[in-house]
Amino acid sequence: MATSIDYKLGAFAFPRGWFMIAEASEVGRDPLALHFFGKDFVLFRGESGRLVLLDAYCVHMGAHLGRGKSSSIVVQGQQIEGDSIRCPYHAWRYDANGQVDEIPNLPGPCPKSAKLHSYPVQEVLGAVMMWHDTEFGEPDFAPPALVEWDDPRWVNGTYDHLGVIPIHSQELLDNMADSNHFGPVHGVPPDYFSNEFRDHLYVQYQGGFRLEYNAYLRTSTFYTGPGLLISRQQIGEIHSIEFIFHTPLDDGSVKVWHNVVMRTDTDTPGDAERAAQRENQNAVLAAFAQDFDIWSSKAPATTIMVLKHERNLLLARAWYRQFFNPRENAAAVHAELNGKYPVAHLAAPDESAYI
Ligand code: FES
Ligand SMILES: [Fe+2]
To answer: Which residue segment(s) compose the domain that 273 sits in?
Structure first.
C-alpha cells in the first residue's frame, strides 16, 4: 500500500480539510465508533441535537467511549447527558469540548488535564463533516453548501456507501486533471477541458458527446478541499449534481460515499420523480464505477510518466500537496497556482459559461 510519503506529499500523513465521516441519519444518542486518519473517534448527538466528535480513548484507563455497549450505564441509557458522554468503564463524563467535568465519587474538582481533543463537525448535505488538521487549527474555509439540497424541485438521493479501497486518495484526485481517460474509460471523449484553481477550490470543466445517450454531456466539477467533490452535470434535459466524498481511513486507504441530486419539473416531486432520480443515480454511479474498477486494481502512481499534454496532472498534485503541509505555506501555493489551465488541444472560449 503506497502512503503519503511515497507520493512525496509533504510533512503530514493526512490532509487538512473537511471530510465526510458518516451520514447524518446514522448518528443519534447511540455513540458511533469511527476510524479515520489512522485514529479512532467517537461520534454522537447530544440531547440538544449538537454533534460531538472526540478522540475515542478515555484518558483514565483507555476504554473506548463508543464501544463497551454491554456496560450497565450504556444499557440503562445513561451514557449521554445533555451534550456530554460518560465513559462506559468508570463513568467519567466528557463535555462537548472534550473536558472531563464530572468523575463519580471524586471529592473535589476534576483535573484540568483530563481532556480529549474535540473536533469541529458540521451537518451539511445530509452528511456529517469533520475538520481534520494535523496542526489542530480552526477551519480556514467552509464545507460546501448547495441551495439545490433544500430546493423542493430537486430530489435528493440517499448515500451509496462504496466501502474502502486500498489506494491513496491521491489517485482519486488525479481524475480531475485526467482529460485523456474520459474517452477510454467513460466513452465520452471531451470536446473541451480545463481546470481552475481558486485557493482551496479545484475545478474541472469539460464536455463531450455521449454516444450511449445520444446527447451532449457537460460537467462542472469542483473539490472543496481535498476530500469533497461536487459535480454539476447536464445531459440533454437532465440536470444532476453528483457527490463523491472520500476520507482517508489509514495512510493509503480511502472510504468513499456517493450521492446524486436531480432536478425535476415540479415543486412537489412524487414517486415518479423519486424513481427517476434513483434511476439517474444508478446511471451516474455506473460511470463512477468505471473509475473505481481501474483504481481497485492499479499499481500506485507514485510518479507519473507525464507527457506534454498532461501537465494538469502535475499541477493538480501541486495543489493537493498544500493540504499535507503547514497551512502557513498555503498562501504561496495559491499565489503560484490560482488561475485557469485549459488543455491546449481542448480549449474553449469560456468553459465556465456552460453550467
Ligand atoms: S477508563 Fe474511562 S473512566 Fe476509567
Ligand atoms: Fe472518471
So the answer is: 152-353
